[in-house]
């Protein structure tokens, strides 16, 4: 194992010292590149009140490659699939090495506020979101209550 | 008697005719000589021209109606001497010409020769403020950086857009459209807000001056001077405007302050020269102008000023007038101030007497002053980093942090879009085909190739403002590169063999980085190991390769020619920036016991023969392709049995034999030559028997 790059050390320190509101990211005790993340559901979204667990991993060539992020908590969202994989451009082709863990998590939080059914990852969810948004939101609230609360 | 008279008259006529003829002949001879002298002058044979003109002048002396021609000739004589470097003699002749009355201002040859003499060794390299704009010497405003790594104000860049090369280092500036350098701009705004404001006021003063509003311009310069006291750029301009307002004495004071602060800056002497000239002190003015020329990079535009200064010095009436002017002025001053009046007058009379030195003496003084100044500038070890001493807020490490690696910038470079990263961080972005990380605009070839240079401003600012941090960072890099390579980088691709060429096409971002680091590293080595699917990882045995040649493409890909150096066994594995690292043990063949040597030799010969047989089965085309890539089959070494990797030809053969990865790795890791030969023998047997080629 190589010594941790200064970039990761500094980002971790800052995440600890100045946490982003509504987001907590703690490195794993055994692997400093692996973060346990909790994102609170944004206000005025179907995910409000939920605590969503995510895992975030910084690959060896971070920040040249984007961090790998996945929802662990089940979530009803058109851009997040059953396995928790996230469809977000900055995690893929729009990644820039100037982005950071905190900016990535902020973008994910924003994605919860503004689902984008036109660029779906979970097709069934996206379909319902487009056809019957009210029902989709009801489902999302239900899933949030069931999977992302009290536990 | 009459006959005698007639004869006498005829004789007289003949004499007169003869005399006239001789005279005309002489004249036309001189005229011819003048022509030759002109020719010699025009063909730049000034030595000959001097001689010829001298002769012409002396011959024409007796001719009454040749005043105009004589003047021309004397100028020709003086010009020739000036051009052939006899400045003192030339000046004496010019002085003589000027004594005879007013003549046209024809001193360009003398001026050119003087400039040449003052500039004989070129101007000394002038000390400069490392944090200032390389064009105007001011704090860089809206700084843009050139490919050479130097930075200038945006305005200066536009003003000098015609020059393709940097005035400081002479290297190419790169493309013409540039964005403001974001980092330098931020630093300048943080460290020198007052200087920026003062510079803006100076700019306003300059435009007012250009528009003819002298008083308003003066006010702006005064305001600028109030913000940043005694800044030479402001004072030089204020001196100019003051002179235009006929306040020569104050203009002189400003010019002298400029010289005191920046003794290496030619413009200070130029302003001083003009002020002195305006005060009628033409001798001193000439000396100041000479000092300016001695320091100026391109002094030729100053020829006209030199002509004027010389003209004033040579013109006797003007000199007298100026002396009178001084006496009157001093007298007036002394009546105002009784105490010092007499003394002043006395002093001035002394000065007036001292003025009566010859013009030649003045020349000597002038050349000496210029030479002394050049010498002083050369030996002036004082640094002139004013800006670094006048920062208004303290520098912090975070000001100089690279956004990509979060460390203090190391060998910073700026992209065309104006963003700055460490050299190696930018390289990595290019490896990954990323656009600029901060603004997402494409990273063009300009920053990828050799056109890139370290950003001088940031490097210097760091060393001046945060010397300790800069030293530490330098030390870190040195330690990092000096650190013994305990672990080697491993390129997971194929199996290489000792002594055998291994051409590689590098396109994967992580391997671009790996190869670049290997090339920068003096060893130029890296490990090569095959990926074994059955094991899900790279093989335990590999070959250390040495880079012989690398050819890079614009796309960032490269073709690397390598040769196997030694076999290794992987002891432990690691990872770095996306590529593999391994701690390895180099492998050597076990020595062949004496009793086995005979058997091994027989086997060796058998395999070699079999190999030849197999090769003969191959098509002509196939053989030539093999030769192109791997060369011919190596000859047998005399001590093949004692070599650490055994005979070279066996590895050459291994490289071309159609074997599976696992088998190749197995043979590579075998340290018994006998076992290896048996394995190869078996393979060849198999191939030839089945006719597999």
Automatic annotation (TrEMBL), chain A:
InterPro entries: Ub_conjugating_enzyme (IPR050113), UBC (IPR000608), UBQ-conjugating_AS (IPR023313), UBQ-conjugating_enzyme/RWD (IPR016135). Gene3D superfamilies: Ubiquitin Conjugating Enzyme. The keyword Cytoplasm does not apply. One of its GO terms (biological process) is protein ubiquitination. Belongs to the ubiquitin-conjugating enzyme family. The keyword Transferase applies. Keywords: ATP-binding, Nucleotide-binding, Transferase, Ubl conjugation pathway. The active site is at residue 87. The lineage of its organism: Eukaryota, Metazoa, Ecdysozoa, Arthropoda, Hexapoda. Residues 3-149 form the UBC core domain. This is UBC core domain-containing protein. Pfam families: UQ_con. It comes from Cloeon dipterum. GO terms for molecular function: ATP binding; transferase activity. GO terms for cellular component: UBC13-MMS2 complex.
UniProtKB/TrEMBL annotation, chain B:
Residues 133-169, 402-439 form the RING-type domain. One of its GO terms (molecular function) is zinc ion binding. This is LON peptidase N-terminal domain and RING finger protein 3. Keywords: Metal-binding, Signal, Zinc, Zinc-finger. The keyword rRNA-binding does not apply. SUPFAM superfamilies: PUA domain-like, RING/U-box, TPR-like. GO terms for cellular component: cytoplasm. Residues 1-26 form the signal peptide. Pfam families: LON_substr_bdg, zf-C3HC4. InterPro entries: Lon_prtase_N, Lon_prtase_N_sf, PUA-like_sf, TPR-like_helical_dom_sf, Znf_C3HC4_RING-type, Znf_RING, Znf_RING/FYVE/PHD, Znf_RING_CS. Residues 480-688 form the Lon N-terminal domain. Transmembrane segments: none annotated. Gene3D superfamilies: LON domain-like (2.30.130.40), Tetratricopeptide repeat domain (1.25.40.10), Zinc/RING finger domain, C3HC4 (zinc finger) (3.30.40.10).
């Amino acid at each position: 194992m190589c010594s941790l790059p200064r970039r990761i050390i500094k980002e971790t320190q800052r995440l600890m010292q100045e946490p982003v509101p509504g987001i907590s990211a703690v490195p794993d005790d055994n692997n400093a590149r692996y973060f346990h993340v909790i994102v609170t559901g944004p206000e005025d979204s179907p995910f409000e009140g939920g605590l969503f667990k995510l895992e975030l991993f910084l690959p060896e060539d971070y920040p040249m490659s984007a961090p790998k992020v996945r929802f662990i908590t089940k979530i009803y969202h058109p851009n997040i699939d059953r396995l928790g994989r996230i469809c977000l451009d900055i995690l893929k082709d729009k990644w820039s090495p100037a982005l950071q863990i905190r900016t990535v998590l902020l973008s994910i939080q924003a994605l919860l506020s503004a689902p984008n059914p036109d660029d779906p990852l979970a097709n069934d969810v996206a379909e319902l979101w487009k056809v019957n948004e009210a029902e989709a939101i009801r489902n999302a609230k239900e899933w949030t209550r069931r999977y992302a609360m009290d536990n | 008697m009459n006959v005698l008279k007639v004869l006498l008259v005829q004789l007289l006529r003949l004499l007169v005719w003869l005399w006239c003829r001789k005279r005309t002949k002489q004249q036309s001879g001189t005229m011819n000589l003048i022509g030759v002298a002109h020719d010699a002058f025009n063909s730049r044979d000034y030595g000959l021209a001097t001689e010829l003109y001298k002769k012409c002048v002396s011959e024409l002396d007796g001719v009454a109606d040749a005043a105009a021609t004589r003047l021309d000739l004397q100028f020709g004589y003086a010009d020739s001497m000036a051009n052939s470097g006899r400045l003192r003699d030339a000046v004496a002749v010019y002085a003589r010409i000027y004594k005879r009355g007013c003549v046209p201002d024809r001193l360009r040859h003398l001026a050119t020769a003087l400039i040449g003499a003052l500039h004989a060794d070129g101007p000394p390299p002038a000390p400069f403020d490392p944090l200032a704009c390389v064009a105007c010497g001011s704090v860089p405003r809206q700084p843009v950086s050139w490919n050479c790594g130097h930075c200038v104000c945006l305005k200066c860049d536009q003003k000098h857009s015609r020059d393709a090369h940097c005035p400081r280092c002479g290297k190419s500036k790169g493309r013409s459209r540039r964005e403001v350098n974001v980092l330098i701009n931020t630093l300048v705004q943080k460290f020198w807000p007052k200087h920026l404001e003062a510079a803006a006021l100076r700019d306003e003063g300059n435009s007012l001056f250009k528009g003819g509003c002298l008083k308003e311009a003066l006010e702006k310069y005064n305001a600028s001077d109030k913000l940043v006291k005694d800044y030479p750029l402001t004072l030089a301009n204020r001196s100019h405007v003051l002179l235009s307002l006929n306040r020569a004495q104050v203009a002189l004071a400003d010019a002298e302050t400029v010289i005191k602060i920046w003794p290496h800056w030619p413009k200070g002497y130029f302003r001083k020269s003009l002020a002195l000239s305006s005060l009628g002190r033409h001798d001193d003015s000439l000396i100041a102008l000479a000092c300016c020329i001695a320091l100026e990079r391109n002094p030729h535009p100053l020829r006209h000023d030199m002509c004027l200064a010389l003209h004033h010095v040579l013109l006797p009436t003007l000199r007298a007038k100026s002396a009178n002017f001084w006496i009157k002025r001093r007298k007036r001053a002394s009546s105002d101030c009784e105490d010092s009046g007499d003394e002043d007058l006395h002093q001035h009379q002394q000065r007036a007497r001292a003025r009566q030195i010859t013009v030649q003496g003045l020349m000597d003084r002038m050349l000496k002053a210029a030479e002394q100044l050049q010498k002083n500038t050369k030996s002036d070890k004082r640094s002139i980093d004013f800006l670094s001493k006048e920062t208004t807020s303290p520098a912090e490490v975070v000001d100089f942090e690279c956004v990509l690696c979060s460390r203090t910038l190391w060998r910073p470079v700026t992209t065309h879009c104006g963003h700055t990263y460490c050299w190696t961080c930018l390289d990595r972005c290019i490896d990954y085909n990323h656009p600029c990380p901060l603004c997402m605009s494409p990273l063009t070839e300009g920053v990828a190739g050799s056109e890139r240079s370290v950003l001088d401003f940031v490097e210097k600012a760091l060393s001046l403002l945060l010397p300790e941090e800069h030293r530490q960072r330098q030390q870190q890099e040195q330690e990092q590169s000096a650190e013994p390579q305990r672990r080697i980088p491993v390129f997971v691709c194929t199996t290489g063999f000792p002594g055998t060429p291994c051409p590689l096409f590098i396109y994967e971002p992580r391997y671009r980085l790996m190869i670049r680091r290997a090339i920068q590293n003096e060893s130029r080595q890296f490990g090569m190991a095959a990926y074994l699917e059955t094991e899900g990882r790279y093989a335990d045995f590999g070959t250390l390769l040495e880079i012989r040649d690398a050819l890079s493409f614009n796309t960032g890909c490269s073709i690397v020619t390598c040769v196997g150096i030694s076999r290794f066994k992987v002891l432990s594995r690691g990872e770095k920036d996306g590529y593999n690292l391994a701690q390895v043990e180099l492998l050597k063949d076990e020595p062949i016991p004496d009793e086995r040597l005979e058997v091994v030799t027989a086997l060796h010969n058998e395999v070699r023969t079999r190999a030849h047989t197999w090769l003969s089965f191959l098509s002509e085309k196939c053989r030539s392709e093999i030769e192109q890539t791997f060369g011919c089959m190596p000859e047998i070494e005399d001590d093949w049995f004692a070599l650490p990797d055994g005979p070279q030809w066996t590895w050459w053969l291994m490289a071309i034999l159609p074997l599976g990865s696992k088998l190749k790795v197995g043979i590579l890791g075998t340290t018994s030559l006998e076992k290896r030969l048996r394995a190869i023998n078996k393979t060849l047997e198999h191939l030839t028997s089945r006719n597999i080629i």
